[in-house]
Amino acid sequence: MILYPAIDLKDGNAVRLLRGDMDKATVFNEDPAAQARAFVEAGCEWLHLVDLNGAFAGEPVNAAPVEAILETCNVPAQLGGGIRDMATIETWVEKGLARVILGTVAVENPDLVREAAKAFPGKIAVGIDARNGMVATKGWAEETNVQVTDLARSFEDAGVAAIIYTDINRDGAMQGPNIETTADLARTVDIPVIASGGVSSIADLIALRDCGAALNGAISGRALYDGAIDLKEALTTLRE
Predict the structure, then answer these.
(1) Above 80 in pLDDT, residue 14?
(2) Is 129 an active-site residue?
(3) Which of 37, 49, 183, 193 could form a disulfide with 211 if both were Cys (CB 3.0 to 4.6 A apart)?
(4) In angstroms, how far is CA 2 from the centroid of its own chain?
């Protein structure tokens, strides 16, 4: 199981939110590229990047720090937040992004997801963010009547590389991930599932790894910044 260190970008800084609330942002590093290098030096295999401002604006806002990360880090990175048209997807792929995460458009324009997955094999992931089993969009600000499992199943034949499932109520709260729901989703679809939200200890990572659903990976942010998870130790543990 891959551990994806998260770098959430707001106003050019690396931050973490509490349950997706932009007014509850903690700045952890004013130099996101330096933060990314620190994660890479610790041995991470991937980076998970989110343009928080972009998620609300519907277009890339923190492109500069993302580009700086791509230029200075030699591990693959995935990015979500405000990517809602083919031109933006193509631009990021050309700039070296390994995986583009489509969230809001997966609900509002699923044909774009299918088109992108066909055009860029292995480079398109679907971000499914949910409260109480229902999908939320536009930076988690708008709730829909779409169920997580229904949305996930709808992309079974689309060729997407992964589903990144975030339990919003757990995100940034350091209360542990929603293992049962995440495992159920992974067993429901053939698409690799990455768990996000609430990972607060190495024990959480082990529980996700051993949940019986063969998760592709887990994303952690605040726990890494707060020191609740030592990245080197976690990576070693997950490889055992």
Answers:
(1) yes
(2) yes
(3) 183
(4) 12
Per residue in 190-200, is it b (16+ CB within 10 Å) or e — as a string? ebbbbbbbbbb
**Rounded distance between C-alpha atoms, residue 58 and residue 172, angstroms:** 23
Two structure tokens written together for 213: 């659903």
Q: Residue 237 belongs to what H/E stretch?
A: helix 231-239
> Per the structure block, which two tokens stand in for 160?
């997407």
Q: Give pTM, 2 decimals.
A: 0.94
From the number of C-beta atoms within 10 Å of its C-beta (0-12, 13-18, 19+), residue 37 rates as middle
Contact 53, 62 (CB under 8 A): yes
Contact in structure between 221 and 8 (CB atoms under 8 Å): yes
Identified catalytic residue from 8, 167, 171, 204: 8
Which distant-in-sequence residues (6+ apart) come within 8 Å of 103 by Cβ? Answer: 55, 80, 81, 126, 127, 128, 129, 137
Stretch 33-44: mean pLDDT: 97
Catalytic residue at 8? yes
Residue 163: phi and psi, rounded to 5, are -115, 125
Mean pLDDT of the region 18-41: 91
Output DSSP code: residue 19. Answer: T
Catalytic option among 129, 167, 171, 204: 129
